[in-house]
Specification:
By secondary structure, the protein is an alpha+beta fold. It has 3 domains: 297 residues, TIM Barrel (Alpha-Beta Barrel), CATH 3.20.20.80; 85 residues, Golgi alpha-mannosidase II (Immunoglobulin-like), CATH 2.60.40; 137 residues, Jelly Rolls (Sandwich). The chain contains 13 helices and 28 strands. Helix 7 crosses helix 13 and helix 9 runs parallel beside helix 11. The N and C termini lie far apart (54 Å).
Length: 585
Amino acid sequence: MYRTTGRTMRALFGAAWLAMALGAVGAPKETPAEFEKRTRWWREARFGMFIHWGVYAEPASAAGGAEWYLSGSQVQVRDYEKFAGQFNPVRFDAAAWVRMAREAGMKYIVITSKHHDGFCMFDSALTDWTITKATPFQRDPLKELARECRKQGIRLCFYHSIMDWHHPDYLPRRAWETTTRPADGASLNRYIDYMKGQIRELLTGYGPIGVLWFDGGWEHTAEELRSEEVNAMIRQLQPGIIINDRNQLPADFSTPEQTIPSRALPDGRLWETCMTINDTWGYTRDNTNWKSTGDLIHKLCDIAHKGGNFLLNVGPTELGEFPKPIVERLRSIGAWMKANGASIYGASRSPWRQLSFDGRCTVKGDRLYLHVFRWPDADLSLRGLRSRVRSVRVLATGERLTASPSAATDEPSITISRPRTLDPVATVVEVRCDGPVRAEDPSMRYRPDPSGRLTLHGGDAEIRGSAQLEGPAGEEWVGYWTRPADYVSWEIETDRRRRYRLDVTYACAPGFEGSRYVIGVGSRGVDGSASGSVAPTGSWREFRTDRLTDTITLPEGRQTITVRAVSMPRGAVMNLRTVTLTPEE
């Protein structure tokens, strides 16, 4: 999986997003309707199984980095190869694996066809460094999984590493092996030909494949990897396939790793959080930091609430079995999904970013699904629902609940009665409306604090364009702002006409300073606008606050505050954390 390699502009901004911002090279030539049709199964699935499995399951060392053992232990390739002779997963049972995924409520499987160590978990004709030739096992587990996935109705998908520490033509070499494996005569272009040949084998020998999930592309540019050419070949071989963003092109979806975005990605961008059940992707004998079932179900609800997919990883042992703690968690998740899966599969993201209760929600047609993590001591209040409610019930049990209008706030609000029985992890309430769900998000409309100040947080901004949020939960900022056409805005509500001073908190790495921006009223952000300029702050994560010379005057009532770039001379605007409006006395 991904490892940070440095603070180059490519690492800071994300080359895939930068490519998209500068022209979307390699994007599929299809209409939005065609894209929606091609990706429909994946968007409806919401939940998949990630499998990291390879010869690294033999040493099974967290200290060595699990699937990164060759690199983490800094062993020589010839010494690492000995593990293949010991790797004999005699307890591997494709039917049992697929059944476990299906019973956990997962709709697709993404398995490592080859990780960074170059070891092929399939029968490749292009190398002997495969499970069929270099191990006592001598079977093709991907062939067996393909057969079982078709039989049990699960989509099979392949992870494929671009990086290859074993192949003589892959560059660069690791630092500790430059003398033992000199790079003289190596050719990255020749390696890309090899990689293309293996992808062709995977896409022509295993039936329909749902996703080609690249990884390990960060050491090179899209041009060096010939990614447009590679993606074009993939789509020619399997036109319905979905491709991720890790060969340095945006392709079809983004892949946050071990983290959940604070909100849906801008402009409906598809995304999928991949995450481990413990701390490692590959199997390790000494890592027992298992996430609880409740935590994993809450993460699934949170991801669905934000319109994403959840790709939950398992690391099988060297014998081909899932560790017992993983089996226990998958079974518990499956029991919850059997009762509540209708609130996840095919559901759209929540109309609210924040809810008036501890939980999450999704929407499907005329139904609103509330995932209540902790029920209030009394009835539950739902603010901002404008649709008329036809019925309310507990999804798992069918228990009918009552819903009545609430006069507790000045927003449209309903109160839902407390069920007799609550799920200890998440009680799902189905609210059926008289038509498509209509809602207003009052939590996202800023009002002044008692002193009259308004602090607009980047994590709550409405982002238009390819910019996106980054940073830890509760401290997010607007980053990847690489197009001057992008802008951000907030909905506010003021109680009277006032003039405000403006303070802007932002970060900008040296060499990217000089952008100018305006802050104003309305979606265009030009009415009564104030202007500022971006100075260097030390790095993209070192923030400073500037007081603008200009002030703005806001009338009473609801309005939009917008920040727009006027100029962007050096490839980026800024990382924007907050805009604070302080009334002048």
